[in-house]
């Protein structure tokens, strides 16, 4: 009795999957997918098998090997949807210039527990309102005012790298460079010196952990569904790692709010071009811009937390990766390194 019931259940599941698979292949997405090269699309599973059980190093190699193998933008077909990996400028330009395709991919949903609905993940009216508040904080003209911080932090980075310059010991760039980027974004955008915070080391470690969890989820399409992610017990460890991160950002906001409110001079209008960026020598961090907007009830505490988490993560993870690639390339291309060195001398 048990065996026929089991056969029936499994048979029904397979039938449902096959019908779904058939239906998904009648869509525009599948027709578009066929215009691009890619691995063999297996019934029901599509290209899922290619992604399974890869660690971050294998994930990195997988993407690079695909780009080299297909010599063009290539597609994956997973869970009835097409994923287009754009490797050519021509196609990138079309997508980036499009006003039609502005909705973010499902992968951005995974960032939500970390950075909420901040600028990177939000859309529509919310995005526009936040963008209006924040754009002046990154006006080209204010960058020179942060040059001293960039120089101080760069000097510290060079001193750290110098300790390994004799080549006796290998250096793990990740932690050194990530630290550098995090310290710099904190001081420039938040107006807060990380050295003064005991919690900073924990923040860095936890951000790294969360980054690994995000990559793991991205590479495991069966975890895309929130309910499955929860059921398999992944949300608990993520929430645990996020606690100290959010605690840290909240304490930065609190500390900065105190000094912001203590300033006796009238607050600048962050939307005005005639504000502190241009008027005098005082630096005006991005967090102050948000606090000024809070004073005008344009954003609340949770909104500030979303943006601070967004900028802290976006502002250090990206630049750290760019710096690491640059260092590795310079190490591999000794003649270019020599030319850079001469130019700086
Ligand atoms: C090499 C360095 C960087 C790279 C390659 C990079 C790349 C990108 C890309 C491709 C996007 C568009 C993503 C999307 O809309 O889906 C983006 C958006 C964004 N980035 Fe960066 N970024 C870098 C540095 C930074 C820094 C230093 C900050 C903070 C100070 C930052 C903050 C943001 C924010 C807030 C958004 C969302 C903007 C919006 O939608 O209005 N990024 N970045």
Task: Describe the protein in words.
By secondary structure, the chain is mainly alpha-helical. The chain has two domains: 16-101, no CATH class; 130-344, Orthogonal Bundle (Cytochrome p450). The chain contains 16 helices and two strands. The chain has a two-stranded antiparallel sheet with strand order 1-2. A hairpin with a 2-residue loop joins strand 1 and strand 2 (81-85). Helix 10 (200-218) crosses helix 12. It is globular and about 75 Å long. The relative contact order is 0.10. Residues 104, 119-120, 131, 185, 189, 310-311, 314-315, 318-319, 322 line the site of protoporphyrin IX containing FE. Protoporphyrin IX containing FE is lined by residues 104, 119-120, 131, 185, 189, 310-311, 314-315, 318-319, 322. Residues 1-15 form the signal peptide. Its cofactor is heme. Keywords: Heme, Iron, Metal-binding, Monooxygenase, Oxidoreductase, Signal.
CATH first level of the largest domain: which class? Mainly Alpha
Taking the alpha carbons of the first and last residues, their distance comes to: 83 Å
Rough outline? globular
Q: Largest sheet, described in full? A: 2 strands, antiparallel
**DSSP helical segment count:** 16
Q: Which ligands occur here?
A: protoporphyrin IX containing FE
Strand proportion, as a percent range, falls in under 5%
- Would you identify the regions where 5 or more consecutive residues have pLDDT less than 50? 272-281
Instruction: State Rg.
Output: 24 Å
Order of helices and strands: HHHHEEHHHHHHHHHHHH
The spatial strand order of the largest sheet comes to 1-2
**CATH architecture descriptor name of the largest domain:** Orthogonal Bundle
Structural class: mainly alpha
| Helix percent band | 55-70%
Indicate the CATH topology of the largest domain.
Answer: Cytochrome p450
Look at the structure and give the mean pLDDT.
87
Number of strands: 2
GO molecular function, one term: heme binding
InterPro entries: Cyt_P450, Cyt_P450_sf, Cytochrome_P450_Monoox
Organism: Anopheles maculatus
Cofactor: heme
């Amino acid at each position: 009795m048990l065996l026929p019931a089991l056969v029936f259940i499994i048979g029904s599941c397979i039938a449902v999957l096959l019908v779904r698979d058939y239906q998904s292949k009648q869509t525009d997405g599948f027709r578009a997918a066929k215009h691009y090269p890619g691995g063999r699309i297996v019934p029901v599973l599509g290209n899922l098998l290619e992604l399974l059980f890869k660690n971050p190093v294998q994930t990195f190699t997988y993407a690079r090997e695909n780009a080299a193998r297909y010599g063009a933008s290539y597609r994956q077909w997973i869970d009835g949807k097409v994923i287009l990996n754009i490797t050519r400028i021509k196609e990138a330009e079309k997508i980036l210039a499009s006003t039609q395709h502005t909705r973010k991919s499902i992968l951005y949903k995974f960032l939500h527990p970390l950075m909420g609905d901040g600028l990177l993940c939000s859309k529509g009216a919310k995005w526009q309102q936040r963008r209006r508040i924040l754009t002046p904080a990154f006006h080209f003209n204010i960058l020179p005012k942060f040059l001293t911080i960039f120089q101080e932090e760069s000097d510290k980075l060079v001193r750290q790298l110098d300790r390994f310059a004799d080549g006796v010991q290998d250096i793990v760039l990740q932690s050194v460079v990530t630290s550098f980027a995090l310290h710099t974004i904190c001081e420039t955008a938040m107006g807060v010196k990380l050295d003064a915070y005991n919690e900073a080391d924990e923040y860095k470690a936890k951000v790294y952990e969360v980054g690994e969890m995000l990559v793991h989820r991205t590479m495991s399409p069966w975890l895309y569904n929130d309910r499955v992610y929860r059921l398999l017990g992944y949300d608990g460890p993520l929430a645990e790692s996020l606690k100290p991160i959010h605690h840290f950002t909240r304490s930065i906001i609190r500390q900065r709010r105190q000094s912001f409110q203590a300033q006796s001079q009238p607050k600048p209008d962050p939307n005005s071009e005639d504000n502190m960026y241009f008027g005098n020598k005082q630096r005006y961090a991005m967090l102050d811009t948000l606090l000024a907007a809070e004073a005008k009830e344009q954003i609340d505490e949770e909104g500030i937390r979303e943006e601070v988490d967004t900028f802290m993560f976006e502002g250090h993870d990206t630049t750290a990766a760019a710096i690491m690639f640059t260092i590795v390339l310079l190490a591999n291309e000794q003649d270019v390194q020599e030319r850079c060195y001469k130019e700086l001398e």
